[in-house]
Write a structure and sequence with these properties.
Blueprint lengths: L1 H42 L5 E3 L6 E2 L5 E13 L1 H5 L5 H12 L3 H9 L9 E7 L1 H11 L5 H6 L2 H8 L4 E10 L7 H4 L11 H5 L1 H4 L4 E7 L5 E6 L6 E4 L3 H17 L11 E9 L6 E6 L17 H6 L2 H12 L2 H4 L9 H11 L7 E4 L2 E4 L2 E4 L8 E4 H6 L3 H22 L26 H7 L9 H12 L3 E4 L3 E5 L5 E4 L3 E5 L3 H17 L13 E8 L8 E9 L6 E10 L8 H17 L74 H4 L9
Parallel strand pairs: 2-8
Antiparallel strand pairs: 1-6, 2-3, 3-4, 3-5, 6-7, 8-16, 9-10, 9-21, 11-14, 12-13, 15-18, 16-17, 19-20, 20-21
Helix pairs in contact: 3-4, 3-5, 11-21, 15-17, 15-20, 17-18
Organism: Blautia celeris
Subcellular location: Membrane
Family: Belongs to the transpeptidase family.
């Protein structure tokens, strides 16, 4: 018996020796191959995970957050884990339902479907908050504190231990703390950190970063290790915007819209369109930019404030898209229109600079001019202004005098200065979708077109073109590229790029610029711009009243451009009111009401001090009475503000229409920070005009 046992032991020992020898041989010859196969199978459970970057913030000039990304979490279900133990399913389903509001049937379908039951990654819910995540974890995990853990009932402990297969994937959600403020400028993101509109779209690649990775793997000792590549967050934008000034702008636009909502036109409220730009004429910085009927950037596809339920249901996909694009567009940079008399200072500056006229020249207004086969009225026709100086032509907004100035210039000179002031081409502002407007050319500008172009009819421009051009007229002659971003900062708050005033060219001399300021000051003190006057402040300004196409339909776009102080402008404002909702639209006072109210609040805020002695008190438009002001006091002035009708345009059914642009396309242009908006050639800038 002992011999048999000894023999069996020897056989077993020999088998073991041969097995070890075999394993050793296999390991020596193919060990790496089989190790890789095993690790590859195991790696499926420890595959790399994306660590999302945070998109950069958008801030105003004082650091107030306009757009930011907050950390959120996607709820992930690992069906493999839940199905690995029959005790896991019910507790997990109930916990997901009770604490995260996820339907139990949805979870059941994922756990039982042939396509998903073995899946380790199924998204149950997207972008839950950190509080929701923490609450779920608190209610489904065993507390780390021993006393708290012992305090749980046995049933609760079992429930928590059996809640398995749920984990949270980090993500970011774009949010806009100030909702609709400056919505046209800021823009919004689509899913996946992409954007087309506003600063979000123009600086999309600047704001975006690079995702990181968390890679799990087995080392040579078959131990699980992790390699983490940190994400690189996007860069942040410090804009030139001021939220306080922007709030004032938005407030008075809305007050105007609300107070004229019961006018004769039922298709819109206070006006068809309103646009306001506030800028620094000394460097091209945009301090505020707004239009009517803003939208909430957190709900950019919500049309319910603009259309009834029945109207929304009746829309097809194309109509819905058109309605959204209309809501998203930035009127201040996209829409082109006939500007009217606000271009008269630019025409006069061009004539003086070119030597076509001198300061001493005078002009006779007899109520209008016979031009070719038509008679073009001055605004006061059948009355007349009589003999006028150059300054009085601006003060009185005299079309007759401007037509005479145009004849002295000739079409070649006039068109060359339109080009120098950048009409007909983009300014290059750092926003997508900038319009260009349409000008006459040498081939299609005849006597009538020359005459009407001098006072802003017959060609089109955008608001930003007018602001940039008038700024050059009043700041000493320097044309600055308008811009909205002043600094770009990295994720560590280091400034990687500073953007100051970008000088593109010198268009007029300082002497001519001083003349234009004086003439525009005359308009505010004793001309058509008196309604915009802020008592105690030296100001310059110019009104505009442009008859719209088709002529003779009594529809007008009225406007006002102004600045202060007179001798050293620190702020310029441009207000456009397209078809005010009143019976008689041809009055620039409506634009002046808005400008006066805005300037009366931002002058003190910008530390622009009174520089004139006066006994007059500020009186705003009656309809603005009761509007809460920036200093939180209520404007309760008793008495009426200026209410006289100021007409500085001309009503003439025979006035030529602007030339048509057959190449203009619908939709938003794709210019962005990578293309720097436009090239100098596209913008019509000569290299000789550029600052070195």
């Amino acid at each position: 018996m002992k011999k048999k046992l000894a023999g069996l032991f020897v056989l077993i020992l020999l088998a073991f020796v041969f097995l070890v020898i075999g394993i050793t041989i296999i390991n020596a010859k193919s060990g790496d191959k089989y190790t890789k196969q095993v690790l590859a199978q195991s790696q499926q459970q420890y595959d790399s995970t994306t660590i999302p970057y945070k998109r950069g913030d958008i801030l105003d000039r004082s650091g107030n957050i306009l757009a930011t990304s907050i950390k959120v979490y996607n709820v992930i279900l690992d069906c493999q884990v839940v199905n690995s133990n029959e005790n896991y399913k019910e507790p997990t389903k109930k916990a997901l339902s009770e604490y995260l509001g996820i339907d139990e049937d949805t979870v059941e379908d994922l756990l039982t479907s042939a396509e998903t039951k073995e899946s380790p990654y199924q998204i149950l819910k997207k972008q839950i908050s950190m509080d929701e995540k923490k609450n779920f974890e608190k209610m489904t995990e065993i507390p780390a504190d021993k006393k708290e853990a012992e305090a749980l009932s046995e049933e609760e402990t079992v429930r928590r231990n059996n809640t398995q297969g749920v984990w949270f994937e980090e993500d970011y959600k774009r949010t806009y703390p100030l909702n609709e403020l400056a919505c046209d400028v800021i823009g919004f993101t689509y899913s996946g950190n992409t954007a087309d509109w506003g600063l979000e779209g123009y600086y999309n690649s600047t704001l975006n970063g690079t995702d990181g990775r968390k890679i799990g793997y087995f080392n040579d000792d078959a131990s699980l290790e992790q390699n983490i590549i940190d994400p690189v967050n996007g860069n942040s934008l410090v804009t030139t915007l001021d939220v306080n000034i922007q709030s004032v702008v938005d407030k008075y636009i809305e007050a105007f819209m609300e107070n004229l909502k019961d006018g004769p036109n039922t298709d819109y409220r206070g006006a068809k369109n309103i646009g306001v730009i506030v800028a620094n004429p000394q460097n091209g910085e945009i301090l505020a930019m707004g239009s009517n009927d803003p939208y909430d950037l957190n709900e950019p596809r919500d049309l319910t404030s603009r259309y009834s339920d029945s109207e929304l249901k009746a829309m097809n996909d194309e109509q819905t898209k058109e309605a959204l694009y209309k809501m998203w567009r930035n009127y201040c940079i996209t829409d082109a229109y006939e500007p009217g008399s606000v271009v008269k200072p630019i025409t006069v500056a061009s004539a003086l600079e070119s030597g076509s006229i001198t300061e001493e020249d005078t002009f006779v207004c007899d109520g209008g001019e016979q031009v070719a086969d038509r008679y073009i009225n001055c605004a006061v026709y059948p009355d007349s202004h009589g003999t006028e100086t150059v300054g009085e032509a601006i003060q009185n907004s005299c079309n007759d005098a401007l037509m005479a100035i145009g004849r002295k210039m000739g079409k070649e000179t006039l068109l060359s200065y339109q080009d120098k002031f950048n009409f007909g081409t983009r300014t290059g502002i750092d926003l997508p979708g900038e319009g260009t407007g349409i000008l006459f050319s040498l081939d299609n500008m005849f006597d009538t077109e020359l005459a009407t172009t001098t006072f802003g009819q017959g060609f089109t421009c955008t608001m930003i073109q007018e602001v940039a051009a008038i700024s050059a007229c009043i700041n000493g002659g320097t044309y600055y590229q308008p811009h909205l971003v002043k600094e770009i900062k990295d994720q560590d708050n280091n400034t990687i790029k500073s953007i100051s005033g970008n000088v593109l060219k010198e268009v007029i001399s300082q002497e001519v610029s001083a003349d234009i300021r004086k003439y525009m000051g005359m308009s505010v003190e004793s001309g058509t711009s008196q309604t915009a006057k802020i008592p105690g402040y030296s100001m310059g300004g110019k009104t505009g009243t442009a008859e719209k196409v088709p002529r003779g339909n009594h529809k007008y776009l009225v406007s006002f451009v102004g600045f202060a102080p007179l001798d050293n402008p620190e702020v310029v404002i441009y207000v456009v009111v397209d078809e005010p909702n009143v019976e008689e639209q041809a009055s620039s006072t409506y634009a002046q009401y808005i400008a006066q109210a805005i300037l009366s609040e931002i002058f003190p805020y910008l530390n622009i001090y009174p520089d004139q002695e006066t006994d007059q008190k500020l009186q705003l438009w009656d309809e603005f009475t009761g509007t809460t002001r920036m200093d939180e006091s209520v404007n309760g002035e008793d008495g009426n503000g200026p209410s006289g009708v100021v007409i500085d345009g001309t009503e003439n059914p025979d006035m030529p229409e602007p030339p048509q642009d057959d190449s203009e396309e619908e939709g938003i242009d794709s210019n962005n920070a990578e293309s720097d908006g436009i090239t100098n050639e596209d913008a019509g800038f000569d290299e000789d005009d550029m600052e070195e």
